[in-house]
Every structure is written in C-alpha cells, then in structure tokens.
Design brief:
Layout: H1 6-15, H2 18-23, E1 29-31, E2 34-37, E3 49-52, E4 57-60, E5 66-67, H3 69-77, H4 81-91, H5 107-132, H6 137-145, H7 150-155, E6 159-161, H8 167-174, H9 179-184, E7 188-190, E8 196-198, E9 203-209, E10 215-222, E11 230-232, E12 245-246, H10 248-258, E13 260-264, H11 267-275, E14 281-284, H12 291-298, E15 303-306, H13 312-325, E16 331-334, H14 343-350, H15 352-361, E17 364-365, H16 366-375, H17 383-399, H18 403-417, H19 421-426, H20 433-436, H21 459-471, H22 475-485, H23 492-504, H24 511-527, H25 530-540, H26 550-579, H27 583-602
Parallel strand pairs: 13-14, 13-15, 15-16
Antiparallel strand pairs: 1-2, 2-3, 3-4, 4-5, 6-9, 7-8, 9-10, 10-11, 12-14, 16-17
Length: 603
C-alpha cells in the first residue's frame, strides 16, 4: 500500500498556517496567546473554539472537537488523510506527485477524487481552448465584446467548450476516467440510448469553485441562439448550488480584509465589478440566495451590499435576500441600479471610476430601500394607501435591531405624516424572541462521527486526561505513570495514546531527547486518526500546571483504579443476581462485596 513519507507530511504541516486555514471558515479573535471563535462543528452563541498557533492545534471546549491542520480539513471536507495531504500540499505549492495511493481510499473517496481531478483537467483544457486555439476565438471575441480584459478572464479561469459533441468525452476517456463517474460528476451527459456526449459544447464556460478554490462545477453560457441560454452543473457529490457562490474563492481575501461583500446576480456581473476595482463580489448560481449562503458570508464579513438588477424581478429578489439576512448580525445595504440595468451594463456605460463613486454615494439602508419600494405605485394622498404604506414601514422598522435607526425612521414618518411619535411607536409590531436577538449562527458541518457534550464528565476521564498531559512534559512522568498504571486506562483512546508514549520513552531517555522526539512522534501518530488527534489536541490545550508532583499523579491513578474496582463490584452484583444457585451462595458473595466496598471507601 502506498504510503506518504513522514518528511512530506511534516513539510506540508510546517507550510500550513493553522490560523490562516481555520480563519477561512471561522472568524477568530485574539485572546491572550490563543485565538477564539464560534465552533464550526456545532451551533453556539458564545465562542468556545480555541486555536493555538504555537502548538498548531485547535480545540472546542463545548463539543470536544480538536486536532491539527490535517484533522480540520478531514472533518470539514470529509476527505481521507491522503486526500487531505494532497489538498494542503497544493495549497502550499508543494509537489506531492506519486504519493497518493487510491488503495488507501474507499470507493466513494476514489470517485470523489476522480471528479475533482477531472474538473481540474477540464477547466485547464477549456481555458486553453479559449485563449490559445482557433476553436476558442468565437468565445474570446464574445468576452472581449463584453469589455472583459484577458487578466480578468485568466483570474477566473473562464474557458470555452468547443462546439463538438464528444470533445470532452474523448479527452476524459483517453485519460482513463470512468465515464459513468463523469456523468455523475456533471461533466458530460448520457443519452437514453447510452451514448456519452458533451454537456457544455459551444458555450463560454465559467468554472465554479468551492470555498477552498477547488473547481467542482461549471456554468456554460450560449453565445448564439441555442437554448437553453445557460447550462449549469446539476447537483453532484461535489456541487450544491445552495452552498456555492461564484467568485467566492477569488473574493475571499478582500472580503476578509474589508469585512464586506457585494452580492450580484450574474457571473459576468461578478467579472465586471471585480475588474472595476471591487474585488469583494460574489453571485449565487442561477438559484435563489439561500440560508447556507448567508451563513457562509457571515463567517467572513460584517456588511453585505446587495446590487441586483434594476428591474422589478431584481427588486423582488432583493427583498427576499434581505429577509434571509435579517436573521444574521450583518449590516445589510442596498445599491439600487437604474431601471433595466445590471452591474455589467452600468460599468460598461459609465466606467470604473464612476462606478466607485456610485457605490460610495448611493447605498441605501434596508429601511430606505423599503421606503422606496413601498411608495412605488401608491398615491399617498389617498388615506387608505397612506395607512397601508405607514403600516408596512412600521412592520419593517420593527424588524431592525438598530435602535438608533429605528428611532430615526419613526421620527421621519412622524414628521412626514404629522402623526405623534408615541402613536407610531405603539403600533410597531413586537419582534418574536428569535427576531429580537439575532445571533451569528454557524453552518453545521457534517462530522466524521457524532460528538457528545462534555458536561458531567466523570472523574476518571478527567484524571486520565491530566495524567496524559503530565506525561507530555517529560520522560520521568511517563515512566512514573507506566510503572503504576500500565495500560489500565478506561478510555480506549487514552490507552492508545499512553501506549504510544510508553513505546517511545526508554529507561534512559533524557529530557532533551524527550523534547526533541516526543511531540513530533505523537503528532505523526495522531495525524491519520481524527479521534486520536482530537483528544491529543484537547489534552495539550488543557489549562493546568506544566508539572505535577508524584503525589498528585498518584491521586489521579487512584481515581482511575477506584473506578475500575467499582466496575468490578457492579459486574459481580449482576453475576450474583444471575448465577447464584442458592441463598447461601448469595449471602457469601454479598458479604465479600461489602468488604471490598468498605476497603475501597477507606483508601
């Protein structure tokens, strides 16, 4: 079975900044020597997720999740260890050719890897066709006529699928890909008669990447009169429209820096807005903006500026997005465009400089936008329409969590319609408890296994963790625990970690040797086992003294041994109830148990 060399694993780990990696999914804030944030593995309102840059580990004190850079990717992406090393190596520009063995993967993981490899290959090929071949000239001319520069085309890796029925099929077949898997991946199609054919033929192709920049799908746009105008990747094991945003990976760094994002409707809108100097721009993928999209953005930004098309449909869509974002602690603004205009049109008509001025001067708050929307088509000189408008605005005012903005708007309505302030305030609908205190929620990530709460953790479990923590400080502590406890750990993971420490620490190992060897050895030992890495990270990040006296260690060992003896007593009780043949036998055995229980209490 192919095995990834330890030196490659070490190089990838060294090159991966754990704060930067986790920070792409979790908003982290400095707290002493660590960084804290809301845990991505369970929903919480106050941060219990801790990252230690010094130790290269993370741990959640709420759900118990923990580990290193490998564990984090394995748990959040559902990848195997070899896939994770490959992903992080690619991220760090480290060559890992030849170390990935499919024998180490499950069949599903092999298919997913094939799908990712195929998407990368096809995206490169389509981009090459667009930029360097005669077949792609029609696509390149279309994009140039849309005033898109080659630098922008290259940044988003736009491509062109030749107008040939089996161009992509034959490429994938030559490269040895399973065509049935390629159909499932959405790269090609299959007719009822069983013929494989290209899905995006004759279209400009926009690659869709996940949050880590891995291409997982495509959006193909017709540039002639063929229908449908757009062909998108269908739902696949890699591609979920309700979770992906076009341009997210290109925009992420600027989004994080500026703490804001512009939300537009189309792929070309994203390209134009980015080219005009506003890099923090994304679009949903031909579908409605979803709660998953809102959660993904709320991890990185504090402000969302909605810039949908200026037609009626665009304004209706804007209202729906506002409704979804109302549950998040995001500052939502609206950038209204002139009627029948989208961002692409506006920038091509007015230029990048004017665009920058426009976005700084024309943004509206949600209440200002709703004010404009509710006035449209109404004659406010009529009493009935005026009352309906005021009631609609009071309902919107009741939804805002900003007390200053709420008071300003009530006063605006009071002044405009000459209605006493107190009358209007009394008519503002009271928000429900869930609306009144919106909190930043985290998108639940499907973990490799179910997690359990740590509340009510038994004494023996804590004692075993403290013993292992003490053993990580030096060889004397390891030898002390080994001689007195051996492998009588109650928790299987603790038993395996303890056994690994016993194995590496010899009778003559010095403290210097221990410091050089032990932690790297234990980290390698845990790398491929998320359950070991999680517990190892928790133990290393536990608060407490670095050194513990032998008396304290003995007390922990006593707690563990006492629990084992208690277990034996309970087991014996069950055996008595089941197996005792006579009352005399029961009495004799009960007497023995009473004596053992007394000795246990006296220890």
């Amino acid at each position: 079975m192919p095995r990834i060399p330890d030196e490659v694993i070490a190089e990838v780990k060294q090159a991966t900044d754990i704060v930067e990696l986790i920070g792409e999914r979790v908003e982290l804030k400095k707290q002493g020597h660590r960084l804290v944030g809301l845990c991505p593995f369970h929903s919480e309102n106050s941060p219990s997720f801790s990252v230690s840059p010094e130790k290269g580990m993370y741990h959640c004190f709420g759900c118990g999740a923990g580990g290193n850079v490998f564990t984090f990717v394995m748990e959040t992406e559902g990848l195997s260890f070899p896939e994770t090393v490959e992903r992080l190596a690619t991220r760090a520009n480290i060559s890992v050719d030849g170390i990935q063995g499919d024998e180490e993967l499950t069949r599903e993981q092999v298919w997913r890897k094939q799908m990712r490899d195929a998407h990368r290959l096809v995206a490169d090929l389509y981009h090459e066709v667009l930029m360097k071949t005669e077949a792609g000239e029609v696509g390149l001319t279309y994009l140039r006529n849309r005033d898109l520069a080659e630098e922008t085309i290259a940044q988003y890796k736009i491509g062109f699928a030749p107008d040939q029925r089996r161009f992509t099929v034959e490429l994938l077949e030559r490269r040895g890909f399973d065509l049935e898997v390629m159909v499932e991946a959405g790269l090609i199609s299959k007719s009822k008669s069983g013929e494989y054919f290209d899905r995006f033929e004759g279209r400009v192709v926009f690659p869709i990447a996940d949050r880590d920049g891995t291409i997982v799908g495509f959006s193909g746009r017709a540039i002639d009169d063929r229908q449908p105008k757009y062909v998108n990747t269908a739902e696949t094991p890699l591609f979920n429209k309700s979770e992906l945003l076009f341009g997210f990976s290109q925009a992420r760094a600027t989004m994080r820096k500026k703490k804001r994002v512009f939300l537009v409707e189309g792929n070309v809108d994203v390209l134009q807005v980015a080219q005009a100097g506003t890099q923090e721009v994304v679009a949903s993928l031909g579908t409605a903006f979803s709660p998953q999209h809102a959660r993904a953005l709320s991890r990185i930004v504090e402000e969302v500026i909605i810039c949908y098309d200026g037609d009626h449909a665009g304004q209706e869509a804007t209202q729906k997005v506002i409704r979804l974002l109302e549950a998040s602690p995001l500052d939502v603004q609206v950038l209204p465009l002139p009627e029948k205009t989208d961002p692409d049109d506006y920038i091509r008509q007015h230029g990048a400089t004017h665009w920058q001025q426009f976005i700084e001067s024309e943004q509206l708050s949600v209440l200002d936008f709703m004010n404009r929307m509710y006035r449209r088509g109404k004659n406010l000189n009529r009493e009935g329409e005026r009352i309906r408008f005021i009631e609609s605005m009071l309902e919107e005012i009741g939804k805002t969590n900003d007390s200053i903005r709420r008071d300003l708007y009530v006063k605006k309505l009071s002044d405009e319609f000459e209605i006493p302030l107190e009358t209007l305030r009394s008519r503002i609908p009271r928000p429900t408890s869930s609306e009144s205190t919106p909190t930043r929620t985290m998108e639940p990530v499907e973990p490799v296994r179910k997690r359990s709460s740590k509340t009510g953790e038994p004494r023996w479990m804590k004692a075993e963790k403290y013993l292992l923590r003490a053993m990580l400080t030096g060889p004397e502590q390891v030898r002390f625990v080994r001689d007195r406890l051996g492998l009588r750990y109650q928790d299987e993971t603790h038993r395996m970690l303890g056994s690994a420490l016993y194995e590496i620490v010899s009778e003559t190992m010095t403290q210097d040797e221990f410091d050089q060897i032990t932690l790297p050895f234990m980290e390698r030992y845990c790398d491929q086992r998320p359950d070991y890495a999680m517990r190892f990270a928790e133990i290393r990040l536990m608060a407490g003294p670095d050194e513990l006296s032998e008396d304290v260690l003995d007390e922990y060992i006593r707690v563990i041994n006492s629990y084992e003896e208690q277990r034996q007593i309970e087991r014996a009780k069950r055996e008595i109830a089941q197996d005792a043949e006579s009352i005399v036998d029961q009495a004799s055995k009960l007497q023995e148990l009473i004596a053992r229980s007394r000795r246990l209490r006296e220890r």
